[in-house]
Amino acid sequence: MMSLLPLPDREIRLVPIMMCASVLWFSTSCDAKNRNATPTSTFERPEKSQAPRFIPYELLVKFKNGIAQERIESILKDSRIDVIGVIQRGRLYHVRILDDRSVESAITQLTSYQEIEYAEPNYRYEMQK
Q1: Is the whole model's pTM more than 0.90, yes or no?
Q2: What span, in angstroms and rounded, lies between the C-alpha atoms of 90 and 3?
Q3: What is the pLDDT of residue 127?
Q4: Residue 5 belongs to some domain of the structure
Q5: pLDDT of residue 76
Q6: Residue 20 within a domain
């Protein structure tokens, strides 16, 4: 059986000093950059400014096949909507709402016409880095 040898006086006094120094170092190094910061979870994502998910007052409107150009123009004029651009051979329109209606209310109005296949916001897309 192994016997424990007594520690010299100097080493006995050094152990509590080293323990106190370790505790002090550990407690101050945990948040060395900002000591007044409130604790945050490491799982929280940093908040970035939230840009709108879609461009305000802009829509994409797709008309069904076989709708006459005059009827398309009439629907858009009655809905107080201006054409920005035409896509897909005259079936898909990039449009702007001419009054202060919300995108959602303009979509509701447009989709009430049987000639419209769909209407949706002009969504913003970002490439992931």
Answers
A1: no
A2: 95
A3: 78
A4: no
A5: 95
A6: no
